[in-house]
Amino acid sequence: MSTSTSTYQELLSAVVAENGRPVHDPATDELIGTAPVQDVARLDELVAAARAAQPAWGAKSHAERSEALMKAADAIEANAEPLATLLSREQGKPLNGPNARFEVGACAAWLRATASFELEEQTLVDDGETHAVLNYRPVGVVGAIGPWNWPMMITVWQIAPALRMGNTVVVKPSEYTTLSVLALCHVLNSALPEGVLSVIAGEREVGAAVSTHEGIDKIMFTGSTATGSKIIEASANNITRLTLELGGNDAGIVLDDVDPAAIAEGLFWGAFINTGQTCAALKRLYVPDAIYDDVCAALVEFAGKMPMGVGLEEDNVLGPLQNAAQFKIVDDLVEAAKASGARVLMGGEPDRDAPGNFYPTTLVADISPDAELVVKEQFGPALPIIRYTDLEDAIAQANALDVGLGASVWSADRDRAKEVAARIQAGTVWINSHGGVDPRIPFGGVKRSGYGVEFGVEGLKHLGVPQVING
């Protein structure tokens, strides 16, 4: 089967609805198109179709399903530029930098990596008397509920292992980025067998219905802790399996042996990738007094070189906040920090009358460890930098919150950094970087940042049902 290539206009025409919900560019406020709005009755139809398609898909071998994922990756690569353009226009992220083109490329790379993992039958006991083997069978139908910050990439994080393990998938995208996910699935379905992947483009009541649907055997959700809690409650009656990647407020601890200029770029992108709209972004930075001013100065220097603007303009690497509600959250937290006496090193003064949801790159120094900007997840381009004099206090502050998605330690001594990292309560702790994910390495949170893991062979296992055959 040959892989077809669409123009941007052709791709947009394939997913918009004649009488749908208006979708505006968060950088310019321009109308992009109208997204379909479907209802719970449509969800019932899609779930029924997914259940009907699953036995044949699940009966295929791992090799056959992996081949299908590789063809899906080919389809994404053939349509990469129109996908990136739509993503930039709807989500707001620029084409360049670690943004729209990067995200689309990551979708193809994740599909290929997931297709390459081996999950063979495991012999548990074979001692002459007992013979027991372990296999992972398909769960059935997976409901994938995605966020608006990395809408295409995180949808692939959910789709790829689910399909690889023989499940069929019904995707519920965020209302903020519906067109992007519809376009992604349109491209994927050009390479996948009919019925294994479908999308329900509905409002919140449809998302709630996914959580309670008796025909859905597993839910994968990436989003806020508050919504995750509601999904847990709603799915309880059906004993639905769950993988939840929820909110984070990632801490970074700088040790006193680093060169501030050498780590400034890593710190910046750890905090400001996707304009700070990343669950596992660096959201609070603890810096020792001895090098505090130097780290602040190095960050200001580097951040000042990173242009922010309309995503389709090739020079920009930072964009707007995706929606006005998120803009208000960031704005309110920074204003509260300013009122408390914290020192704004740069940014903090948005043009509230200008088009788009642009909030300037903001660095806040000399802020209390208990300030709202520190203890609440800002999910935007504002980084609080907390001064410390005792490393034990910094570790205690890093662990004080009820979330634990990621964290990082920055040091010239890797062994020293690893000792500190082992004491931080987070699902992943990076050393001298922050937020980088790898399809081969399991990723998941602790505390109220969720449970279950994604990625790698361990992630595949979470999309299967373990079955032991003993005898």
TrEMBL record:
Read off the SUPFAM superfamilies from this record: ALDH-like
Is this entry keyworded Oxidoreductase?
yes
Which protein, by its recorded name, is this?
Aldehyde dehydrogenase family protein
Does the UniProt entry include the keyword Oxidoreductase? yes
Q: Which organism is it from?
A: Kocuria soli
Q: Which InterPro entries match?
A: Ald_DH/histidinol_DH, Ald_DH_C, Ald_DH_CS_CYS, Ald_DH_CS_GLU, Ald_DH_N, Aldehyde_DH_dom, LUC3-like
Question: Which Gene3D superfamilies is this protein grouped with?
Answer: Aldehyde Dehydrogenase, Chain A, domain 1, Aldehyde Dehydrogenase, Chain A, domain 2
Domain (Aldehyde dehydrogenase) ranges = 21-462
Q: Which GO terms describe its molecular function?
A: oxidoreductase activity, acting on the aldehyde or oxo group of donors, NAD or NADP as acceptor
Q: What domain of life does the UniProt record list for this protein's source?
A: Bacteria
Q: What family, per the record? A: Belongs to the aldehyde dehydrogenase family.
Q: Which UniProt keywords apply?
A: Oxidoreductase
Which residues does the entry assign to the active site, renumbered to this chain? E245
